[in-house]
Write a structure and sequence with these properties.
The structure is a homodimer of 232-residue chains. Chain A contains twelve helices and two strands, in the order H-H-H-H-H-H-H-H-H-H-H-H-E-E. Chain A has a two-stranded antiparallel sheet. In chain A, helix 6 packs antiparallel against helix 12 and helix 7 packs across helix 9. The longest helix of chain A is centred in the N-terminal third of the chain and has 31 residues. Chain A binds a DNA duplex (18 and 18 nucleotides) through helix 4.
DNA sequence: GTCTATATCATGATAGAC
DNA sequence: GTCTATCATGATATAGAC
C-alpha cells in the first residue's frame, strides 16, 4: 500500500467500518455479528470501532441512519413534487406507492456501494425484535409515514382509514420480504423457474408495483364487527 | 403445589420448556434468547433443557417443528380435499390462497396455547439470517411448497411461471409481516385509527385474503427483458 | 488516531452427586 | 430426571502506551 492509499484508508476508517458493518449485519443479523467480525472485515483494529462509533448499538444505528436519511428525504421531495404538480388535487394511489417504494429501490440502485446490501439489511431489520432497533426505526420513519399517511387518506377518501393502514401494512411486508431476499428464496429455490431472475432484483420494481397496486385496489373485505356483518 | 401438580409439572417439563422457548424466541429472537432465559421462564433448571432437548439449536428446531407439522399436514389435507371436490379441474386461485394462508391462521387460532405466539415467531423466523434455521425451514416446507406450486401453475396456465413465483413471494411477505405483528405496528402506532383492531389480529384473515387475491390477480407488469419491452 | 492488552461479564454445555 | 457447580469460550468495552 502506497502513501496515498494509506492516507486515504486512514481518513476513511469510519466509513470503512460502517461499510463492513452493513455487510456483516446483513449476512449475520445484529446479534450474530460481533465487533471483531466487523473490524476484521474492515481491516481495522477492534478499538477503532468503539473510538469512531462509540458502541455496537450506535454502530448499528449509524449504519441505518446514513442511508435512511437519504432515502427518506428523497421520499419527501418526490411526494412534494407530485403534490405540487397535482396543484391541490388528491394523488393517484399508484403515484404515492411509487413515491414510497419506487424511491427506495431507485435510490438504493444509485448507491453503487452497498445499495443492494443495505436493501437486504433493511428488509431484515424491519422485523428485528431488538427494542433499540424498533425504537430507532420508529423515530427515523415518523415524518415520512405522517406525510404519506395524509396523502393516502386524501387519495382514497371513500376507503375507511383502518383499511388503508392495514393495506399499507401488507405492502410494507411484501416489499420488505422481497428486498430481504433470503428465507423465501431458500424456500422457493426448487421451483422450476429462471432462478437467475429471481435471485437478482431483476425487474423487481415493476413486478412489485403491479402486485402492490393490485392489492391496494382489491375489493374491501367482508368485516365482522362483532354484531353484524357489514361491508366497510 | 400439591402432589398431583408436582407430578404433572414433572411429566410436562419438556413441553413447558418448549412453551417458554416459543415465547422467549418470539419476544427476543433466537440470538437474543439465552438458555437461562428460557429455563427461567419455564421454571426449570438450566440443565433440564439440555437434557430434554439436547442443544439450543435443537430446541429452536423442535419449537418450530411441533407446530409446523400440524399446520403443513392440514395444508396438504385441505388442498387434497379441494382437488378431490374439483374432480380434476384446476382450482380457483382464491381457493389455493385460502388453503395455504387461511389454514395457517385457522390452525393457529385453534391452538389456544401458544397459537398467537407461534404465529408471531413464525413471521419473524422467515427472515432470520441463521443458516441452520433457513436450512431447517426449507426442509420443513419442501413438500407443501411443491404441492402448492403445482396447484398454482395449473390454476393459472396463462401466467408465466416466474410471475407466479414472484407473486407467491410477495404474498408470503405480506402475510409474514402481518402475523409477525411488531416492527410495523410500532411504525404505524401513531396513525389515527382504531389501534385496538390493528394491534390484535382482529379480522386479519379477510383483510389479508382480499389484499393477496387483489395482488395475485393484478395486471402483469411491463417487463424489460434487456432487448425490448414486452408484456409477458 | 491507532494499537495492545486486558477487565468484566454472559453464554452454551457438561460433569457428577443425588 | 433433576440439581449444583463449573468449564471453556467469546462477547463488549476500555485503559493506557505510542
Amino acid at each position: 500500500m502506497n502513501k496515498a492509499n494509506l492516507e486515504q484508508s486512514r481518513k476513511d476508517t469510519r466509513e470503512r467500518i460502517l461499510d463492513a458493518a452493513e455487510r456483516m449485519f446483513m449476512q449475520n443479523g445484529y446479534d450474530g455479528t460481533s465487533m471483531r467480525l466487523v473490524t476484521g472485515a474492515a481491516g481495522v483494529n477492534l478499538a477503532a470501532a468503539n473510538y469512531h462509533l462509540g458502541s455496537k448499538e450506535a454502530l448499528m444505528q449509524e449504519v441505518l441512519r446514513r442511508r435512511l436519511e437519504v432515502i427518506n428525504q428523497e421520499r419527501l421531495r418526490v411526494l412534494d413534487e407530485a403534490e405540487t404538480k397535482a396543484s391541490g388535487k388528491p394523488l393517484k394511489p399508484s403515484v404515492i406507492i411509487d413515491a414510497f417504494f419506487g424511491t427506495l429501490l431507485r435510490v438504493a440502485a444509485d448507491q453503487k456501494a452497498g445499495g443492494d446490501t443495505f436493501l437486504r439489511l433493511l428488509g431484515r431489520t424491519i422485523t428485528d425484535p431488538s427494542n433499540f432497533i424498533r425504537t430507532f426505526m420508529s423515530g427515523e420513519y415518523a415524518d415520512v409515514l405522517e406525510r404519506y399517511r395524509q396523502a393516502m387518506f386524501r387519495s382514497l377518501p371513500d376507503v375507511p382509514k383502518a383499511e388503508i393502514v392495514w393495506r399499507f401494512h401488507f405492502m410494507l411486508g411484501a416489499a420488505s420480504y422481497a428486498i430481504a431476499g433470503t428465507g423465501t428464496l431458500q424456500l422457493v429455490a426448487d421451483w422450476q423457474v429462471d432462478e437467475g431472475a429471481v435471485a437478482q432484483n431483476k425487474n423487481l420494481l415493476p413486478r412489485l408495483m403491479s402486485f402492490l397496486i393490485g392489492g391496494l385496489r382489491a375489493p374491501l373485505p367482508q368485516i365482522d364487527d362483532g354484531n353484524k356483518t357489514v361491508w366497510q
